[in-house]
Amino acid sequence: MRQKKLLMVVLVAALCVGFMVSALPSEKAHAKVINLKVANFFPPPSFQSKVLEEFCRDLEKRTGGQVKVDYFGGQSLLKSTAMFDGIVSGIADIGYSHVYYTPGRMAVTEAAGLPLGYASGWVASQTLNDFYQEFKPKEFDKVKVLWMNMSPNSAIATAKKPIRKLEDLKGLTIRAPGMAGEVMKALGATPAPTPMMEVYDAISKGVIDGEASNFETLFAFKFAEVVKYSTSIWQINHPYPFYLVMNKNSYKKLPPDIKAIFDKLVGEYKERYILMWNAIDFVGKAFGKKKGVEFIELPPSELPKWQVAVIPVIDDYVKTMVGKGYSEAEVRGWVKFLRERSDFWTKKQISLRIPSAVGPPEIKPEALIIK
């Protein structure tokens, strides 16, 4: 009898425990959903916008819906000039922009945009990420840097006057912010820091004569509809440094398991984004040809004049940074590092057979065809 009572007590206790356990909410089923806002100034149809949105959707998928992302392209949440502050303040959790939209604020990183003649957008992007990892500029201390990249090889697009020699730039007003503006000034043009979203109308109305960027903007911002010429100046390539950054608190709040998924995804998309930027020049050039844009390459006899003309841009940058408290040796060391890594990644691109639309013969498609 006593054993039966004891058995009954054990059974009742087991049933109670089982009921209590089954009544507890499942951790996975009831885990708090993490909501993130991602902002990008590029228009939604652009590849820069589409790939970043794919990153957002992939993050949702890999976390099983535990992370929900609201994506805002085309400056719908934050304008390009307000992106960095918007991430720091938490208006958006993640944002994409480039350093010249806040001139002087990211002065150390601006060194990457000097006219150093990077062989391609892929080479420049890998070099920029190396530069950030090596020197960790304090200008990014308020955010979590996810990745950086550079635009493709430099080109000047004009509406009425073709640029075939250095003297052709005199008297022209060319859209070029930040370091690109300094390069245009050294080449004899008048730089204008026109916001990118206003450039199309400014060219079509004759407010400016053209813009200094690369082939990809002919498609991404439809400049091929308002310009007639695009001159490649990759030999003094001075690309735009871009960044994807995250609010530090937003990153810290990610649970360990989610953070591991997030970090892995960032690593994958960093390389994908760099390859996309390198390849987009092909799309821009094809779109330009379709619209009747004439593509011009500088003859060898012209190159020395252009290369000599931009030397003062590098020297002036060094002087400016010395004025900010850095030693000349330190700043020259940044430039030396950039040149060395550029050479390293150029060789790597050739060995990996990654083609570019314009640049040294070794990275052009025709040189990579296996015969």
Overall pLDDT metric:
92
Distance N to C terminus: 93 Å
Total helix count? 13
Residue fraction in strands: 5-15%
Instruction: Output the CATH topology of the domain at 155-239 and 283-359.
Output: D-Maltodextrin-Binding Protein, domain 2
Taking pLDDT < 50 over at least 5 consecutive residues as the criterion, the unreliable ranges are 1-30
For this structure, the quaternary state is: single chain
- CATH architectural type of the domain at 155-239 and 283-359: 3-Layer(aba) Sandwich
Q: How many runs of DSSP E, i.e. beta strands?
A: 11
How are the elements arranged and paired?
Blueprint (H helix, E strand, L loop, with lengths): L1 H22 L10 E7 L6 H16 L4 E6 L10 H7 L4 E5 L22 H15 L7 E8 L4 E4 L14 E3 L2 H9 L3 E3 L3 H9 L5 E4 L3 H4 L8 E4 L8 E7 H5 L3 H35 L3 E4 L5 H7 L1 H13 L4 H25 L12 H4 L3
Parallel strand pairs: 1-2, 1-3, 6-7, 6-8, 9-11
Antiparallel strand pairs: 3-10, 4-10, 5-8, 5-9
Helix pairs in contact: 2-9, 4-9, 4-12
Structure description:
This protein has 371 residues and is α/β, with parallel strands linked by helices. It has a domain at 155-239 and 283-359: Bacterial extracellular solute-binding protein, family 7 (D-Maltodextrin-Binding Protein, domain 2, 3-Layer(aba) Sandwich), CATH 3.40.190. It is built from 13 helices and eleven strands. It has helices at 2-23, 47-62, 83-89, 121-135, 178-186, 196-204, 217-220, 248-252, 256-290, 303-309, 311-323, 328-352, 365-368, and strands spanning 34-40, 67-72, 94-98, 143-150, 155-158, 173-175, 190-192, 210-213, 229-232, 241-247, 294-297. Strands 7-6-8-5-9-11 form a six-stranded mixed β-sheet, with helices on both faces. Strands 2-1-3-10-4 form a five-stranded mixed β-sheet. The model is unreliable at 1-30 (pLDDT under 50).
